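User: Can you model how 3-thiaglutaryl-CoA sits in this protein?
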Amino acid sequence: MNPLDPNDFLDVRSLLGQHELELAQRARRVMDEQARPVIARAFDEHRFPRELVPGLAALGALGCNLEGYGCPGLGHTAYGVICQELEAVDSAIRSFVSVQTSLAMYSIHAYGSEEQKQRWLPPMAGGEAVGCFGLSERHGGSDPAAMRTTAKRHGDDWVLDGSKMWITNGSLAELAVVYARTEQGIRGFLVERGTPGYGARTLERKYSLRASSTAELTLEGVRVPEAARLPGAEGLGAPLGCLNQARYGIAWGAVGAALDCFGTALEFTRGRKLFGRPLAHTQTVQRRLAEMARRIATGQLLALRLGQLKDAGRLRPAQVSLAKWNNVRMALDVARDARDLLGAGGINLDHSPLRHAMNLESVITYEGTETVHELVVGRELTGFSAF
Ligand code: TGC
Ligand code: FAD
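Assistant: Here's the modeled complex, given as C-alpha cells:
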C-alpha cells in the first residue's frame, strides 16, 4: 500500500467537490508563482505586497462567497479552501482577503442600499477598490459595545468623531466601513478616503503580520450624507455578523499555516543527520511530528464540517468560535514546535515557521481573542454569559 499523504492523513480532500479541488489547485499555483517568491522580503520590509491584489482578484478570492454585483459567488467551502492556500504562504495575504471580503464587502452586501452595492462591490471584487473595517478601539477591542466613536445627525448629514485602532488595510483603503454609536444605537457608515477629517496612520514596529498593513483611523468631524449610512446595519449584531464570516475563513486559513510549518519540519528532520542518523529516525521527533499530524487532521475535519454547515445555511456563531479557537491554537502550537525542530536555522526568514508563528500571535488575538471564543462556547453550553 502507498504511504498516507502527510498533508492529508485522513483523505479529507476526497470529501471536497471537483470545483473546490480545482480552485485549491489554482490558488496554490497563483501563490507559488506570485506570493512565495516575495513574501519573506515583504515581511522583512514590513510591507503589504499590493502587487498580489490583481492575482487574488483574478482567482476569485475577493468577495469569493458573495453573490451578484460582480462577486464570484463560488460558495463557502470554496472560500475556505482558498483561505487555506493563501495562509499557507502568509496570514497577511489571507488577512487582506478576509477584511476585503468578509468584513468590508460583506457589510455592504448584507446591510447596504442598492446604490451602495452597485457602486462599491464590483470594484472591490475586481481589486480596484480596497476596503477596511473599523470596529475596534484603543480602549478594548473585545468589548465593541463600549465603543466611543460617535455619529451625530446634523440635518441630512452625519458627523463622525472618534478613532479606530488596529485596522487592517486602513492605510491602503479607498473605503472604510466604520461602526459608530448614534442616539439610536450602533450604526455603520461608509467613509471614503479623502473625506475631510478622516485620516489613517500606519502602525510601525509591528513584529507580527509584518506583510500586512495595519493603521489607526482618526475621525474628526467627518461629515457624510445619510446615503453613506448602511441602512440594514442596526445594532452591534451587524458588525458581529461580519465577524462570523471572517472567523469562518480564519478557521480554514490557520490549517494552511500549520501545514506549511509541518511540511517544513518534516522535510528538515528527514534530511538532517545527527548522532549518525536522520533526526526523523528518533522517537521524540517522530512523536512531535505525529502530534502535529494529529492536530492538523482534526483541524482539517473541523474546517470542512464548518463549510458543510455554512453551505447548508446551518452554521451557528458558537460553532465558528469553537473552530476559530481550535484551529488557530493548533496552528500556533505547530508553528512554534516546527520552529524549534529547525534549531538555529529556524530563527531567520529562510524558513517559514517563525514567520507563521509571529503572524499567528495576531491571528489568535484578532477576530475575537482565544478567551473570547472560549467564553462564547461556554455561554452556549451553560446559558450564562461570563463577559
Ligand atoms: P451580545 O449581547 O452577545 O450581542 C449583541 C448583539 O449581537 C448579536 N450577536 C451576534 N450576531 C451575529 N453574530 C455573532 N457572532 C453575534 N454575537 C452576538 C446578539 O444576538 C445581540 O443582538 P441583539 O439583536 O439581541 O442586540 O454582545 P456582548 O456585548 O455581550 O459581546 C459579546 C462578544 C464578547 C462575544 C462580542 O462583543 C465579541 O465577539 N467580541 C470580540 C470582538 C471582535 O472579535 N472584534 C474583531 C474586530 S475585527 C478584526 O479583528 C479584524 S482582523 C481581520 C484580519 O486582518 O483578518
Ligand atoms: P483587549 O480586548 O483589551 O483584551 C486584552 C486581554 O484580555 C486579552 O487576552 C483578552 O482575551 C482578555 N479578555 C478580554 N475580555 C475578557 C474577559 N471577559 N475575561 C477574561 N479575559 C478577557 N479590529 C478591527 O476592527 N478591524 C481590523 O481590521 C482589525 N485588524 C487587526 C489587525 C491586527 C494585526 C491586530 C493585532 C488586531 C486587529 N484588530 C482589528 C483588532 C482586534 O480585533 C483586537 O485586537 C481584538 O479584538 C482584541 O482587542 P484588544 O487588542 O483591545 O484586547
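A couple of observations from the model: The pocket of 3-thiaglutaryl-CoA (ligand 1) is lined by residues 95, 98-99, 133, 135-136, 141-145, 168, 235-237, 240-241, 243-244, 246, 317, 366-368, 372, 376, 385, 387 (CB under 6 Å). Strands lie at 131-134, 150-154, 157-168, 175-182, 185-192, 198-202, 214-225, 229-234, 273-274, 277-278.
User: Helpful, thanks.
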